Amino acid sequence: MYGAVRRFAGIGANSSSHLEKWISGAGGLTSILGVMLISQAYLGLNGSASLVASMGASAVLLFAVPHGPLSQPWAVFGGHLVSATIGVSCAMLDTDPIIASALAVALAISAMYYLRCIHPPGGATALTAVAGGDAVHALGFHYVLTPVLLNVLVILLVAMLFNFPFPWRRYPAVWARNHNRSAASAASEPAAGLFSREDLDIVARAIDPALSIGETHLDAIVSLASLNATASSLLPADIHVGRCYCNGTFGPGWQVRQVTGSAGSGASESSMNDTVTYRVVAGNERRQTGAAEREAFAGWARYEVYLNENSWQRVATTPCPAVTDDAA
Fold first, then answer.
1. What angle do CA 193, 198, 201 make, to 5 degrees?
2. Is the pLDDT of residue 266 over 60?
């Protein structure tokens, strides 16, 4: 029940360290102090409280996910200034404030999409221009420059300076340094001959243009996938009678074979010259049988698997339970 609730609510695993959490919080503290001082100087306390709401949201992105596409300089700069301009324009319309507020946010979203500077806090900046009260209205288009532009410059500068001493979270993302240079070199080549970082980037953007996967994280994903693929190769001694093995491919070629016996050269499971017989228990050519030299079978198999209810699970050393045609 708890697992279902977590999936529905979208609560993911939190793998960040305590140090990372406190660094992010300290960055937010430093940036918002500067933003509040500038806002109070131009708007006074009440107006400042309204404006800081949008800058506070920007601080979460800049210091919690500094390498996300929604956190990059153009997204922050363009998102706030474009939205502020639209918000002031809507506030000047001779219409109901409720309609003007909704129109400001709607137009800001569309404009950020077209200008490729999607930054969610920009919607709050546009809304503040309409619903921020007399102190904001009195500024007119000056609101775009002071305090919005000043706020944006302060928060961007703090993000660059504050994150710079920490190589893994330098801002903007282009400054981030990969800790493992050898892994970065491996990541530049297609993982297991199948895909490269550019391929993953294209797929991620096709799924969702706003999907928050920075370049550093893409490199890490490809590098780890490549290392995992290399570590997945089996030796002839890893092939045992009664266990199941998968070739790990995608599409119609996917297959699970169960080793049913061995013969020749003393039928030793440590021998590289004997022949193993197998039965295809899932995937392509299911129910077919065959034979192969142990070394060739090990070259075909990527990893050992076992049947868990109706799903094939990857294992390291656990023997495969007995499989029937009906269960497969």
1. 120
2. no
pLDDT score of 98 more than 90: yes
Name, of 6-10, 93-97, 270-274, the range with top average pLDDT.
93-97
147 vs 38: CA distance, rounded Å: 7
Here the tokens at position 214 are 């920075």
Nearest Cα to Cα of residue 152 among 164, 141, 143: 143
CB 156 within 8 A of CB 149: no
Query: CA 156 to CA 30: how far, in whole Å?
Result: 12
For tokens 């096709």, the residue is: 206
Pairing, β 303-308 against β 275-283: unpaired
- Distance between CA atoms of 148 and 307, rounded to whole angstroms? 58
* Cis previous bond, 172, omega within 30: yes
Cα gap 151→96, rounded to integer Å: 29
pTM: 0.59
Q: Which residues face 263 on adjacent strands?
A: 275
Residue type (1 letter), 132 = G
Give yes or no for residue 181 having a pLDDT over 60. no
Contact call for residues 87 and 96 (beta carbons, < 8 A) = no
CA dihedral 73, 75, 77, 81 (to 10 degrees): 180
pLDDT at 189: 47
What is the H or E stretch that residue 234 is in? none
User: What tokens appear for 78 in the block?
Assistant: 């363009």
Integer Cα distance of 126 and 54 in angstroms = 9
Between helix 73-91 and helix 18-64 the angle, nearest 10°, is 50
Tokens describing residue 139: 């500024």
pLDDT at residue number 179: 43
> 3-class DSSP state for residue 201?
helix
Q: Is the Cβ–Cβ distance between 257 and 244 less than 8 Å?
A: yes
What mean pLDDT do residues 153-172 have? 92
> Structure tokens of 36?
């509040």
- For strand 303-308 and strand 289-293, is the pairing parallel, antiparallel, or unpaired? unpaired
| Cα angle 307, 310, 313; round to 5 | 40
